[in-house]
Amino acid sequence: MSCKLFFRRHLTKSLLVFGLVAAGASGAWAQTGEPIRLALIEGLSGPFGNAGEAVFRNLVWATERVNARGGVKLPAAAGGPRPLQLLRLDSKGNTEEALSMLRSAVDQQAGFVLQGNSSAIASALIDALNKHNEREPQRRALFLNYSAVDPALTNEKCSFWHFRFDAHADMRLAALTDELAQDRGVQKIYLIGQDYSFGQHVLKKGREMIVAKRPDMQIVGDELHPVGRVKDFLPYVSKIKASGAQAVLTGNWGNDLTLLVRAARDVGLTARFYTFYGNGLGAPAAIGEAGIDRVLAVAEWHPNVGTPSSDRFYESFRARFPKPEDDYVHARMQAMIEVLVAAMEKAKSADPTAVARAMEGLKYDGKTLGGMHAGQMRAADHQFIQPLYVSVMKKQGSPGVRFDNEGSGLGFRTLRFVEAARAEQAHQCQMKRY
Fold first, then answer.
1. What is the pTM of this model?
2. Strands, sheet with 36-42, edge to edge from the N-terminal-most edge strand
3. By three-state DSSP, how is residue 408 classified?
4. Which CATH architecture has domain 3-167+311-385?
5. Are 344 and 350 in contact (CB under 8 A)?
6. Level-2 CATH architecture, domain 170-299+387-423
7. Model pLDDT for residues 275-300, shown as the tens digit of each residue
8. I need a labelling partner for 370 at 20 to 30 A (CA). Which of 52, 103, 132, 304 fits?
9. d(CA 74, CA 350)
């Protein structure tokens, strides 16, 4: 079967996508053992389908690179060297559909479930996996979380079967509000977010941090909106403008962020936007030059970190996905796959329970990412500890901005670097271990 025919058949079914480089793929399979199945359960259609597809591209690239170097190096007793195989399962952004896809993943013998674009769905998946793994220990699975950042997931709801590779909301907020606290030009701020667990937490915790760090700052608005259902943010932005706010704090993501910043541009809102995700997935192009010096973002990495290894990493991704609209790469998703592979090789097994034990406390030195983005999986709560960057939108070619985002001519420059040890926060996890 040709490579092209293979991909057409499997992509049409939206089920199996193999993480292989195109060149020499058949030979790679012939030299390896049974594939290790990773099940991506994500909204690949619906209002946040673009965010799901961005995740998919990241994971395809990550699995391709592992397979290109020979796959997961396991001993003969564990099947020998084995490739990673990515299952593509569309939850449509719906919790019940995600739970149905989890059952499908287990039926397809996927021992590793990947999800992140909703803390509410992540919470439901944790509960479901806890029950499944107790009931069917012979078919256990791990949940690798790349974006669901509600702190409860590694605190009150922490689970042996769940590992988070993104900094949680309080870590991100701490970095953002440290930067906000130094901006003496901001006396009034407006809080706006999506009306579900994550968005609610960002506004509540954001208020607490602002009050503690800048008691002189006036919070002139605190508003939640439906998730993925608002088509026109002009009424919201008009209220923000009328409030006199000089800054906006939001955890919005996907189209809810893109449409928000586009409306801000349309009404001429000059407030600074302190965001979790303002440096990609349509946001820079949506706001354009009106966002220069006004849109800030916080992330574990961004393209203009400025080291040779970071530049090579980003240039490799852009070579693999050259379309401007595909320009949304996450170092944490690449690190997640690399840490998973390192844990398998440490455990000498692809058994989920053995891998979970090996992943606890595992230090990743970044070498398989070309020497960038080191971190450690904290054993106590399964939170990956990594550095953070706060960056601000600038014109490409200005100091510190070699690369733009999405062909917009606009990129981001580092304002604040937070070392991993400082980004780390205490936890309240009391985990049952296996």
1. 0.90
2. 16-18, 84-90, 36-42, 112-115, 142-145, 162-164, 383-385, 375-378, 363-364
3. coil
4. 3-Layer(aba) Sandwich (3.40)
5. yes
6. 3-Layer(aba) Sandwich (3.40)
7. 999 988 888 887 788 889 999 999 99
8. 52
9. 8
